[in-house]
Design goal:
Elements: H1 11-31, H2 68-84, E1 100-108, E2 114-121, H3 129-139, E3 152-160, E4 166-168
Antiparallel strand pairs: 1-2, 1-3, 3-4
Length: about 180
């Protein structure tokens, strides 16, 4: 008698169990670290002589983990922007359907100087909004010093109204239901 007999597991259940087992076993091979040779190169991948030099490979930007210190600094940066653009801040709760929602990645150095502004999410129907946001952020540079936090990249979401007024998610007063 096998482990999966007709009495203990229906036919569809057996098929599911076999599928699940094969997925688990396949995942184990994906998680296995690559074997390295003595010089530290991967033993499984052949060396490609035509590969670009290490300095030619673009680096990946890493967004700073949203630790409590980074979230606190995000509010500090947002207050700085609110102070600079007091007449552009949407007062009260934002409408249920805002014109644009833009997720902004702001790179700052250890002194608070904005070094780069990029976007994780841009509205396809409002392509004019992200460049305006980038200019607003750059014009307020330097932001307050991040202190011990040092240079980092932090995220904030801009909620942009058709009027050109905005709120930042870190300081939003919420959204109206109607």
């Amino acid at each position: 008698m096998t482990a999966f007999s007709d009495r203990t597991l229906p036919r569809a259940g057996r098929a599911f169990a076999v599928l699940a087992l094969s997925l688990v076993l396949g995942a184990c091979s994906l998680l296995k670290p690559a074997e390295k040779t003595e010089d530290g190169k991967s033993a499984t991948a052949p060396a490609d002589e035509g590969a670009p030099a290490r300095s030619d490979v673009p680096t990946v930007r890493l967004i700073t983990a949203q630790t409590p210190a980074v979230r606190a600094y995000r509010k500090t940066g947002a207050r700085h922007i609110y102070k600079a653009y007091a007449n552009r801040i949407y007062k009260g709760k934002i409408p249920p359907l805002v014109y644009a929602v833009v997720v902004v990645e702001t790179d700052i150095d250890a002194d608070g100087k904005v070094t780069n502004v990029t976007f994780s999410r841009v509205p396809s129907h409002a392509p004019e909004v992200p460049p305006m946001i980038a200019e607003l952020i750059k014009a307020t540079s330097p932001l307050p010093s991040p202190g011990k936090l040092g240079g980092h990249t932090y995220l904030d979401t801009w909620l942009w109204d058709k009027s050109g007024k905005f709120q930042l998610d870190s300081l939003t007063l919420g959204q109206r239901s109607r």
